[in-house]
Design a protein that fits this description.
This protein has about 425 residues and is mostly helical. The protein has 20 helices and no strands.
């Protein structure tokens, strides 16, 4: 077991979680709805559409890029390209001023798409660096460090930019400059702390040039073959649904807190800190539970908690009740993500990691527009964020129902044997 490689791989989670925490969930999303858009309802609808468009782009591109990565063994190079694109476009989010909604949404869409595509190649390294009996805890380590990274980035943003009467580094509060500057912090954080992966994680020897026609032929072959890995198909169908709910919570948690419960920026940042702490603890603990009970059982437990907490958030009448719901969501979201990644890693056949994780990303994004779409639609129709958020509960419940049909032992046996089982 290469400890340096594991450290470098896990540090990428530490690096990119600043984007999820500060841009997607808590700071910039809320700033967009409150200051850049004309009003909070319009801002919520526009933000949901931006998340939807980027999710569709990721769904369409991830299987193709996964095939490209495995066809030429250029996984590391493609990960670097996605990282650089995400860092640069996140920095550009500093530039849109109040009223410049299209400019803000354009840079966010590019940043979010590059960020999500990077996960295709990043996740595909997991089966290479993790021994089979420790894959759950190493996946959990990554998510745990990720939440720690989000927490640390949130702390720096709060101390240096958001809370001070005079923000650090020469920024001011005029036109939300200090809030917009958090995007610059994210860009530097993401770029700096992703470097250990590129230094310490070794890629397989390059097999040849990237040829798009060859990649499409390989993608077509993989698409036909994946149908015969019936446990992967069942798992991806379940993941397709419950991940929609999780994406929606991450994208609109801060917006919901601000719009329905009148959280201030400081309260939203404190809320983000608490959620990152609980999610990190949950992810680290779930890694050991995962290796002991299995990925499927860990995901099922997390889905039960997420559905219950979402229901509480919808009916919460005050901030303390909403805080309880948020903490439960934090505790359950880390295990859900870590165990989903480790379960897929157990099912993936050797030498096809990027392609199959491309389909994993595909399943996480192809219908990811449904959660934000229905949240935005219900919010718009009933002029109520509360009714909009209620949509996520259904995604968790339906995902749990489909997951019940997954046979984890059979899926692992097929991956080890490198053979196919009878198709569905």
């Amino acid at each position: 077991m290469d400890r340096k490689a594991i450290f470098g791989w896990a540090m990428y989670d530490f690096a990119n979680s600043a984007f999820t925490t500060l841009v997607v969930t808590f700071i910039y999303a809320t700033y967009f709805t409150k200051a850049i858009a004309n009003d909070e309802i319009t801002g919520t609808v526009l933000w949901s559409r931006a998340v939807t468009i980027s999710a569709v782009a990721v769904a369409l591109l991830s299987p193709i890029l996964g095939a490209l990565a495995d066809q030429g063994r250029h996984r590391k190079q493609l990960l670097f390209f996605c990282t650089a694109a995400a860092v640069a476009s996140t920095a550009m989010l500093y530039t849109p001023l109040p009223g410049q909604t299209l400019r803000a949404l354009l840079w966010f869409g590019i940043a979010n798409t590059a960020f999500e595509l990077g996960y295709v190649f990043y996740n595909a390294f997991l089966p290479d660096i993790a021994p089979p009996d420790k894959i759950g805890r190493i996946s959990g380590l990554g998510w745990g460090l990720g939440y720690l990274g989000g927490l640390a980035a949130m702390f720096v943003a709060m101390v240096c930019l958001v809370n001070p009467a005079t923000p650090w580094f020469g920024f001011s509060r005029e036109l939300g400059q200090n809030i917009r500057a958090t995007n610059l912090l994210v860009a530097v954080w993401f770029g700096l702390f992703s470097l250990p992966l590129f230094f310490f994680v070794k890629a397989r020897a390059t097999a040849g040039q990237i040829r798009l026609p060859d990649a499409f032929r390989q993608l077509k072959t993989t698409f036909h073959e994946i149908r015969h890995f019936k446990q992967i198909v069942r798992f991806l169908a379940a993941h397709l649904l419950y991940n929609d709910g999780l994406i929606t919570i991450f994208a609109f948690g801060g917006i919901y807190a601000a719009g329905t419960f009148q959280f201030t920026f400081r309260e939203i940042m404190l809320f983000g800190i608490v959620l990152n702490i609980t999610a990190g603890i949950g992810a680290l603990a779930a890694g050991f539970i995962d290796d002991r009970l299995g990925g499927k059982a860990t995901i099922q437990l997390s889905l039960a908690g997420l559905a219950a907490a979402s229901l509480l958030a919808v009916f919460a009448q005050n901030k303390p009740h909403f805080w309880v719901a948020g903490i439960i969501i934090g505790i359950c979201s880390g295990p859900n993500q870590a165990a989903s990644r480790s379960l897929m890693a157990r099912f993936v056949p050797n030498e096809r990691e990027s392609q199959f994780f491309g389909f994993f990303s595909f399943s996480g994004k192809i219908t990811a527009f449904l959660g934000p779409f229905f949240l935005g639609l219900l919010t718009d129709l009933f002029d109520s964020q509360r009714l909009g958020v209620s949509a996520v509960i259904l995604f968790f419940v339906l995902g749990a129902v489909l997951l019940a049909g997954v046979d984890e032992q059979e899926g692992m046996a097929v991956a080890r044997a490198g053979t196919q089982v009878n198709s569905l």
